[in-house]
Amino acid sequence: MTIEYATRYRARSHLPAEPGVPYFVEKGMGDRAHLFGDLFTVYAGGEQTENTFNFFTCQGPKGETIPAHAHPGTYEVFYVTQGAVRVFVEDLRGEQSERLLTAGDFGFVPKGCPHAYRIERHDSLIVGVAAGPGGTFERFFESLGAPTDALGLPKEPVVPEPAAFGTVPQRYDVRFLPGHQWHTSP
């Protein structure tokens, strides 16, 4: 059993509101949010790590490519533990590539590189970690999406209004790239 805390983001959380507190979280019991058709679960974030890294999972069904974006000051990793996820990335020279990641595969996106992903198999699971001088962006999921206590995927996709995407960069080191075209597979 885990302890519940109150944080500046939530009335109930299994994550302590300040760094320096050891804690444990049972499977799936981190701070959860629905965004698009996915369930994001945060297990460690800025509050716990003094904004040095975050650790989260993304579980989702086969779906559409998420909007292209970049993190100007944050490195991001994708580690697929089940299913399949296609990662699209553009390096700092403008070279685009994509890779299908399946269980056990790892992908790294340096800070500043545009990227997106598409879940290719139902019930895929990504373990994500982000770190860097830009801080952490894990609260982006519940800010743009919908915080939830549910353990499963949303019954209906949570799709933010287009104007909401413009409010994110000021707080979470996420810059959306509307109209960005991937010149790899559709």
Description:
- It is a single chain.
- With 186 residues, the protein is mostly beta strands.
- It has helices at residues 46-49, 140-144, 169-172, and strands at 31-35, 38-44, 53-60, 69-70, 75-82, 84-90, 96-102, 106-109, 115-119, 124-131, 146-148, 175-176.
- The strands form 3 sheets. The chain has a 7-stranded antiparallel sheet with strand order 8-5-10-3-2-1-11. The protein has a 3-stranded antiparallel sheet with strand order 7-6-9, with no helix packed on it.
- The relative contact order is 0.22.
- The mean pLDDT is 91.
- InterPro entries: Cupin_2, QDO-like, RmlC-like_jellyroll, RmlC_Cupin_sf.
- Pfam families: Cupin_2.
- This is Quercetin 2,3-dioxygenase.
- Residues 61-121 form the Cupin type-2 domain.
Q: What is the tally of beta strands?
A: 12
The 3D shape can be described as globular
> Count the helices. How many?
3
What order do the strands of the largest sheet run in, or round the barrel if closed? 8-5-10-3-2-1-11
Q: What portion of residues is helical?
A: under 10%
Query: Which structural class fits the helix and strand makeup?
Result: mainly beta
**Order of helices and strands, N to C?**
EEHEEEEEEEEHEHE
* First and last CA, distance: 44 Å
Uncertain spans: none
- Quaternary structure classification: single chain
Radius of gyration, in angstroms, nearest whole number: 16 Å
